[in-house]
């Protein structure tokens, strides 16, 4: 009976260790994903900022002094 109890204790301990290891493994994956997406977001933000600057340069005549964009005017210019 005592051997059975020790076996059960070893099994439970192994399962707990497995769960803890899995939690750490999952957490590492989450942290790596956050880090990667943060780097990508920086690249995306830079691209969006560049697009905005190029848009302003190309279509400034369609932007009023208060910042309103004449989208229809832009479409007429694009479509001819």
The description of the largest β-sheet is: none
Number of strands: 0
- Write the H/E string, N to C: HH
Q: What's the overall geometry? A: rod-shaped
- Strand share of the residues? under 5%
What value does the average pLDDT take? 86
Integer-rounded radius of gyration? 29 Å
Please report the distance between the alpha carbons of the first and last residues.
91 Å
Helix content: over 70%
User: Which class do the helix and strand fractions yield?
Assistant: mainly alpha
What count of structural domains? Answer: 1
Residue runs with pLDDT of under 50 for 5 or more positions = none
* Tally of helical runs: 2
How would you characterize this protein structure?
The chain has 80 residues and is mostly helical. The protein has one domain. It has helices at 2-59, 71-79. The model has no long low-confidence stretch (mean pLDDT 86).
Per-chain topology:
Blueprint: H1 2-59, H2 71-79
């Amino acid at each position: 009976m005592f051997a059975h109890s020790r076996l059960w204790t070893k099994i439970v301990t192994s399962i707990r260790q497995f769960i803890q290891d899995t939690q750490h493994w999952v957490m590492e994956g989450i942290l790596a994903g956050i880090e990667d997406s943060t780097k990508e977001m920086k690249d995306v933000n830079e691209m969006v900022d560049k697009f905005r600057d190029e848009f302003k340069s190309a279509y400034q005549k369609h932007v009023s002094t208060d910042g309103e964009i004449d989208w229809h005017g832009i479409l007429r210019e694009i479509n001819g």
